[in-house]
Write a structure and sequence with these properties.
mainly alpha, Serine Threonine Protein Phosphatase 5, Tetratricopeptide repeat, 685 residues, two-stranded antiparallel ribbon
């Protein structure tokens, strides 16, 4: 597959105004960074591969390829690329920091600390380096150095919420629950709207058997962000500890609704179903668990017991065999299998199991009395996922400690507005494309007659759709779009005045993040056919993307001037976010995009998405009142347009129209934009 992709890349580059042997590395780097910025990491790697081949002495392509691999969680591959970058240019501080993060994720804690030290030599007191260094110390159980690092971090950044959460988790790891709770409460004082803080307090209170307090914490966490399944899992445990099985079942139903293949949710729901006598559905849940984890002996043992209850002795024995092969000292299981064999009239097999069970039970009893083996612990009501003690086979599962740590030690980098400490990001602009990822707007299908008309012509290689939830390409999709460009180029050569062919190729170029060529094709399409609404629409989208990237590069240049660090992935101002301070309103791309949407609305005053996108552009430039007028039109044309209600609400909050803003956010929430509720709660305090 990779050979096919690289062949298609070669074909694609042959279309550029350069020779087949020498690629325009500057252009390829720009397109690769476009792909990286829009989180199309597989595609980005293909571009950086080409630059590495052409100019292997450059540090920059190794850095960006490493960054792409890092975001794909190929941490070993990322480390190798950062190594190559550092060899070619040892003065890029970000490469040490990211190599440290890569090592942290692969368990090389000492190596990570060395890299963080080097990064701090170049950028002293960088808070993200300090916090990740503290995590490396925590992972290696060096709590003294972890505490010193976190104390330094918080001395320098006394309002840094994530620092207090991490220090609290460090104390919890040491067993000091008092200091842990003190730090969590300080984090809550600094930011009373941080979901993570309530989650961590809830888990701590649950572990201390303060169930009412745990319930209060987890209720608040779920109200602030109702899509985090871990909070439902832990709240289910609290309800279970209070013998409130109905509420616990509701929470595990919610987990499975949100993530149908969530193993912990399925496992715990199966146990609850078994306890209330819903045996067949409990077996179904264990079927799902075992399909995902075929070596999960706890699930096999539970399913065996349930099959035994419904009289499926053959199936029960098959499941139990897998467990006893792994746990030959689990004599209770041999007693159970003996009874199952007896039910099947296998007298000989039953007697063999019975004798083995008796002998093993006596062996263990003698070993315990002589001190050669510890006494078996009594089973617990809950266990961590990593707990393989077979005696706890029917205990509900909490999140694994490793998973909890990953949750504890993550930080949020989302933007804040003034002193409200609330994220007010706009929903993204819409685009005509082939792919759409699932988002939290569940019940709204975006439809447009122009899309339907073009799809019915059968010119495009795939069905076009209009969406504001773009998705990165897979390797197969990357290869198909490079091949499509080659095919469409041949068709265009024989039909140079076919606007639809230029449009089709522009979509391919857009999907591989080559905005310059996409804009050229769309400009040609609109020249041939001035009333081509979808070509005008995507042209406006691409000018917007170019504007975003220019602003991103400007911020990166400032960052590199100040820190000599490549690769800061903090976006400046995007179609999914409001503008940063100091944005220059005199931007040719902004003016070109506005002209495109103006032209569309002259051709078709009912094209809803042109109003919506133009409104987003105006909001980017802080023209919130102008944006509201366009959102008004979008909503007038489509009365149940969730993203338009959401964005209009955000704009109204910015101009101080709080009641109107909250009203719009409520409507957006009603239509499926779940994040609306968290914002409503925060701004209503």
């Amino acid at each position: 597959m990779m050979r096919n992709i690289l062949l298609s890349v070669f074909i694609f580059f042959s279309l550029l105004p350069v020779s087949a042997q020498v690629i325009d590395t500057d252009k390829v780097m720009v397109i690769g960074r476009n792909a990286l910025y829009y989180e199309d990491y597989v595609l980005a790697i293909q571009y950086f591969n080409q630059v590495v081949k052409a100019k292997p002495y450059l540090a920059e392509p190794y850095f960006y390829r490493g960054l792409s691999k890092y975001f794909l969680e190929d941490f070993k591959g990322a480390e190798e690329d950062f190594d190559a970058c550092i060899k070619r240019n040892p003065f890029i501080s970000r490469s040490y920091y990211l190599r440290g993060d890569s090592r942290l994720n692969t368990g090389d804690y000492d190596g990570a600390i060395v890299d963080y030290d080097k990064s701090l030599d170049m950028i002293p007191d960088e808070k993200m380096v300090l916090i990740n260094m503290s995590i490396a110390y925590i992972k290696k159980k060096d709590f003294n150095d972890a505490e010193k690092t976190l104390d330094k971090l918080l001395d320098l950044n006394p309002t840094y919420v994530q620092g207090f959460l991490t220090r609290g988790s460090m104390f919890l790891e040491k067993g000091d629950t008092i200091q842990a709770k003190t730090n969590y409460n300080k984090a809550l004082e600094l930011d009373p709207y941080n979901t993570q803080t309530y989650s961590m307090l809830g888990l701590l209170n649950y572990q201390q058997k303060k169930y009412d307090d745990a319930l209060t914490n987890l209720n608040e966490a779920i109200r602030l962000d109702p899509l985090i399944v871990g909070n439902y899992i832990n709240r289910g445990l609290v309800y279970y500890a209070q013998d409130n099985y109905r509420s616990a079942m509701d929470d595990y139903n919610k987990v499975v609704d949100l993530e149908p293949n969530n193993i912990i949710g399925r496992f715990n729901r199966a146990l609850l179903r078994a306890q209330v006598g819903d045996i067949n559905n409990a077996i179904t849940d264990f079927d799902v668990v075992l399909a995902a984890e075929p070596d999960n002996n706890m699930a096999y043992l539970n399913r065996a017991m349930l099959k035994y209850q419904v009289g499926n002795y053959t199936g029960a024995i098959a499941d139990l065999n897998k467990v006893l092969d792994e746990y030959p000292d689990y004599y209770e299981g041999f007693y159970t299998r003996a009874d199952m064999k007896r039910k099947l009239k296998d007298t000989k097999g039953a007697e063999e199991d019975l004798r083995y069970a008796q002998a093993e039970e006596e062996r263990i009893r003698r070993a315990v009395l002589s001190g050669k083996e510890p006494a078996k612990k009594e089973s617990t009501k809950t266990r961590e996922k990593s707990d393989r003690s077979i005696e706890n086979f029917n205990s509900l599962v909490t999140a694994d400690k490793e998973e909890q740590e990953n949750s504890k030690y993550t930080s949020s980098s989302r933007g804040r507005v003034q002193n409200q400490q609330v994220s007010l990001d706009l929903a993204p602009i819409f685009v005509a494309t082939y792919y759409q990822k699932l988002d939290d707007v569940k019940n709204f299908v975006h439809y447009d007659q122009e899309i339907l008309n073009l799809n019915n012509k059968g010119i495009l290689p795939q069905k076009l759709k209009i969406t504001n939830a773009e998705m990165p390409l897979t390797e197969d999709q990357v290869a198909s779009h490079f091949a499509s460009i080659d095919n469409l180029s041949m068709l265009i050569d024989s039909d140079k005045e076919n606007a639809e062919l230029y449009f089709a190729r522009s979509v391919d170029y857009m999907l591989i993040q080559d905005f310059d060529n996409a804009i050229q094709d769309l400009t040609k399409a609109t020249t041939i056919k001035p009333d081509f609404i979808l070509a005008q629409f995507n042209l406006g989208v691409l000018y917007t993307k170019q504007m975003e990237l220019k602003e991103k590069n400007r911020i990166d240049a400032l960052s590199q001037t100040n820190t000599n660090a490549l690769g800061d992935k903090t976006p400046p101002s995007t179609s999914a976010g409001l503008p940063i301070a100091g944005v220059n309103t005199d931007k040719p791309e902004f003016n070109q995009a506005i002209k495109c949407y103006d032209k569309i609305l002259q051709l078709d005053p009912k094209f809803t998405y042109a109003y919506y996108n133009r409104a987003c552009l105006k909001a980017e430039q802080r023209d919130y009142r102008g944006a509201i007028l366009d959102f008004n039109e979008a909503i007038r044309l489509e009365n149940e347009f969730p993203q338009a209600y959401f964005n209009r609400g955000i704009c109204q909050l910015y101009i101080g129209e709080k009641d109107k803003g909250v009203s719009d956010l409520r409507k957006a929430g009603e239509l499926g934009v779940v994040s609306s509720y968290a914002i409503i709660k925060r701004v209503s305090k």
